[in-house]
């Protein structure tokens, strides 16, 4: 499965790296890509439930989920 989440708060490559590294720690995430310019985060995952976990994690690391 593939899900796109729109976020606020990423400003640079470091933010993108932080986001990707955090999301890849979730067991069912197979890949993650983040784009600071657009705020898009693309997550490939195995289960729908993974997205609620990903949204919580995004908030915990200091970014805001705008839409999923």
TrEMBL record:
One Pfam family from the UniProt entry? HMA
Q: Which InterPro entries match?
A: HMA_dom, HMA_dom_sf
Query: So which residues are the signal peptide here?
Result: none
* Superkingdom of the source species: Bacteria
User: Where is each HMA domain found?
Assistant: 1-66
Provide the GO MF annotations for this entry: metal ion binding
PROSITE patterns, per database record: HMA_2
* Full protein name: Heavy-metal-associated domain-containing protein
Q: Which organism is it from?
A: Sphaerochaeta halotolerans
Q: What is the lineage of its organism?
A: Bacteria, Pseudomonadati, Spirochaetota, Spirochaetia, Spirochaetales
